[in-house]
Amino acid sequence: HDLHHRADDQRRQATREVAARRLDCGHQRSLALGAVGAHRAGDGLRLRSADPRGSLMPIDGPLEEFGSPYARGPLETDHSFSWPLLDLLPEQLASAGGTSEAYASALREAQANLKARFEAEEPVETLVRARARLLDVVLREAWRTRLPQHDGDWTLVAVGGYGRGELHPFSDVDILILVPAALDEAGRQALETFVTFLWDIGIEIGHSVRTVDECRSAAAADVGVMTTLVEARQLAGSAPLVAALLEALSPQHLWPVKDFFEAKVREQNERHAKAN
Fold it and tell me: Global pTM?
């Protein structure tokens, strides 16, 4: 109530009708109260549709159908997605010699395209998935050309929000390099060259290198690590290694569903208490 009285005389009306509806669910009021998080009752169990006004579509089936953590396939299975630029990108990179400059230029072009689509009011739900799809293509090409000798025994895995297929403009690109055993000196040098290349072309990588056993141990000790790995999605490399990871992390072996839920509630409460 006090916030309303302090902010009410400073409110700024949205300049466009569409923006006003997006911000305040159809009616104007102080942005301090009604801008972010002005949801209707029951919206917590709904999925956003592609409607640019932000209308919501209810979940009609079991929640598991909308995000089973152990059944994530490639984003390409979404046949509603179309971005011709991505189809041409591998050929474009190859014709330019696959240099770091070619990759960086292609990324800048694609980012500019996404920005223009955002300014044209394309739904952000589409754009965050398109950005993830863009990074998928770039990382696969980099993996294929920079680490061909390890494509059969290492695996490139997207984790966290990127693994979920949602990537905001300045989010870190979180990846896991899954390896069958501890790296020797040659393996470390090859991986260092690969990661350095990604930074050179403008991708802010957050990466870890682990075996399946190391992933399991880290996830067992820290629900935060488990949360990140729950979103795991294979990008390139050895499929059996990913299958072994998902089996090791399954509720039958680690974090039964009830335990995981209770740990996440505790984690949230601790975070809220720490932030007062």
Answer: 0.69
